Amino acid sequence: MPASARVFLSGAFLQMFPRARKSGRACEREFSAGRLEIDVSIRRNQFFEGVSRRSFGMAALGLALTVGQGALAAPGDGLGQAEWAQKFDGDSRLAVRRSTTPVLSQETVAATEQAIERHRQLAASGGWGQVPNQSMKVGARGRAVVALRQRLMASGDLDSAAGNSDVFDSYVEAGVRRFQARHGLGETGVVAQQTLAALNVSADYRLRQLETNLVRLRTLAGNLGSRYVTANIPAAMVETVENGRINSFHAAGVGKIDRQSPVMQTRATDINFNPFWTVPASVIRKDLIPKMQADPNYLTDNKIRIYRQDGQEISPRQVNWNSMEATNYRFRQDTGGDINSLGFVRINIANPYGVYMHDTPAKGIFGDDFRFVSSGCMRLQNVRDYVAFLLRDNPGWDRDKIDETIRSGARVDVKLNNAVPVYWVYVTAWGTPDGVVQFREDIYQRDGLGGPRPMAQAASAPAAQPQRLEPMQGGARPPAGVGGGRQAEPDDDE
User: Out of 119, 183, 250, 377, which one is annotated catalytic?
Assistant: First the structure.
C-alpha cells in the first residue's frame, strides 16, 4: 500500500476504523448523493493493527463498490442512521449556491416576477400545511416528520421522490438546510424555533411579501454604475458589485429594532485607519455612568480617556459618578482594533443621519443569525477586502498597503479618488436567476404585512449577562487639540 492512497470511504468505514480516521488527513473532494470521495494520506506504521496492506486494499475496493450501490438507495431501504449523518443521500441538485447576480438588477426583478407567479399558483391551490411545533433532527420519527416532508416538498426544498416516510433522514436534513439557506438562517439541518416559525409562514404571506418587494426592486434596479455597494438591511449583508456581477459578500451588523439603519443612496468618500471613538452624550448618560458606578475601572480597562472642554485630560477619580457631572466632559477611546468600538477602519459615507460603516472588535456577531446589533451604523465582516475594493482607484493602496497601515497603528485618513456609490436598501424577498427564492424577516416591520418575527422577539428578551458598551448614533466630535492631525470626524459612531 503506498503512503498516500485515493479511496472511497463510507461513514461506516470511518466508524469501524477510528485509528484510520485519526492517523490520516481526510479532505472532502466530492459530495454527491450516496458517495463521498476522500483523499486520505496515511502514514506508514501508523495504521490500525491486524490489517495487512493487501487486506486494506481489498477492503477499500469492497467499500467503494458498496457505497456506489448505496448511492442508488432510497430512504427506508435499510441503511443505518450512521450514514444519514454523512449526508450521502442528499440531493445535490437542491443545494443553494450563492448567486453572483446583484440584488439591485433587472435580472433579479425578472426572477422575482417569476417567483410571484409560482407563489400565486401555490396560494391558489391552498398553499402548504403547518408543521407541528416541535424540534426535529436526523433520527426523529413520527407524524411531525411527515408534515415537515410535505411542507418542504411544497416549497421545492425537498424532491417529491423522497416520499412521505415518518423518518427524519438525510434527505430531509438536506431539505431543511436548503430552506434555512433561503431564509437567512444558520444551515444546521435542525428544525428549531426560528426554522419552525419560518416554515409556518403561509404561502399567501410570502406571495404578498414578494409583491411588496418587487415594487422596491423595480424602483431601485437600473444604471447604478460599474462599481457600487449594496447593503441589504433585513439580510444584514453587504455586496460589492463590479461590471454587473457581485465581487464580494460581507456579513454585516446593522441597526437594532429601536435604532434602525436608514434606507438611503449615498457615496463612500474616505477611509479612516485606526480611528478614535468619541463617546456620544446619550451613551455617557445611559451606559457609561451606570458602568462606572458598577466598576470604577471600566474606563481604564477600555482605554477611554476623559477631557475637559479646554482639552485637558482628567482622571476618572475626579468625576462624581453618582451625578450627571460626567456629561460635562468628553470621552474618547484610544485607537486599537482589539478594543476600539470602531475596530481598525471606519468608512465615511455622506448622509444626514450620522451613520457610517466600520470594523468591529466583536467579530463573533458575524456568525449569528441575528445581526441587528448596532445603533444605526453597519459593522462589516472582512472589512479589509471591502476597503481594498473602495480604494481600487487610489494608486498604491493595494491590500498589502492596507494591512501595513493597520498594523502600524498610525492614524491615517485616505480620500477616495473616485467616490463609490453606496445603497442601503430594505429588501425582504427576492428571486435569483437560478430559481431560488430568498426571504428575510421583516425585522423593522416596513413591509406592512405583520407576520411573525422570531428573531425580533428573541432580541427583546432580557439579556443573560451585562452587555458591552455600544457606540451610538450622533456622537460628538473630539475636543480641540485632542488627537492631532486631520480627523475627518473619525471619532463618532452610530
Answer: 377
Average of per-residue pLDDT across 146-172: 95
- What's the average model confidence in pLDDT over 382-397? 96
Task: Flag whether pLDDT at 86 surpasses 50.
Answer: no
CA distance 279 to 137: 46
Residue 383: phi and psi, rounded to 5, are -65, -30
Q: Where are the alpha helices (DSSP H) in 221-295?
A: 281-283, 289-294
pLDDT the model gives residue 119: 97
- DSSP-assigned beta bridge partners for residue 346: 272, 358
Of the residues 119, 183, 250, 358, only one is catalytic, namely: 358
Rg (CA), the chain: 27
State the Cα–Cα distance between residues 293 and 322, nearest whole angstrom. 7
Tell whether the torsion through CA atoms of 396, 402, 407 and 410 is positive or negative. positive
Q: Are 405 and 213 in contact (CB under 8 A)?
A: no
182 with 437: CB under 8 angstroms?
A: yes
In this predicted structure, the answer to whether residue 399 has a pLDDT above a threshold of 50 is yes
- Euclidean distance between CA atoms 440 and 140, whole angstroms: 28
Instruction: Give the distance, in angstroms, between the CA of residue 421 and the centroid of all CA atoms in the same chain.
Output: 23
Name all domains of the chain by residue range, CATH numbers in brackets.
Answer: 4-73 (no CATH), 222-431+462-494 (2.40.440.10)
Top-ranked range on mean pLDDT: pick from 12-16, 97-101, 153-157, 376-380: 153-157
Active site residue 250: no
